[in-house]
Design a protein that fits this description.
By secondary structure, the protein is mainly alpha-helical. It has 3 helices and no strands. Helix content is 86%, strand content 0%. It starts with a helix and ends with a helix.
C-alpha cells in the first residue's frame, strides 16, 4: 500500500512540475514579446533588462553594486 501511495504522490508531483514548466515557458514567451514590443518602439532592450534586474534588488544591494561598478570604472579610467 505504501508503494502505491508513494508512486501516486510522485506521479502527481511530476505532473505538477510539468504543468509549471509549461506555464514558465508561456511566461517567458510573453516576456520576450514585451521586450520585442519595446524594441519596436525604440527602447533599448539591454538597458531595460538591466533596469528590471536592478529593481528586483534590495536598495542596499543595488547601492553596493553601483558603488563597486563606479570603483571599478575609476580604476580602469572609464569615469
Amino acid at each position: 500500500m505504501t508503494d502505491s501511495i508513494s508512486a501516486e504522490q510522485l506521479r502527481l508531483l511530476i505532473e505538477r512540475v510539468e504543468r509549471l514548466e509549461e506555464e514558465k515557458k508561456g511566461l517567458s514567451d510573453d516576456i520576450r514579446d514585451v521586450y520585442l514590443d519595446a524594441k519596436s518602439t525604440g527602447f533599448d532592450i539591454k538597458t531595460m533588462r538591466t533596469i528590471v534586474r536592478l529593481r528586483r534588488m534590495e536598495k542596499h544591494h543595488r547601492d553596493e553594486a553601483e558603488m563597486l561598478l563606479e570603483t571599478y570604472k575609476q580604476a580602469l579610467g572609464l569615469s
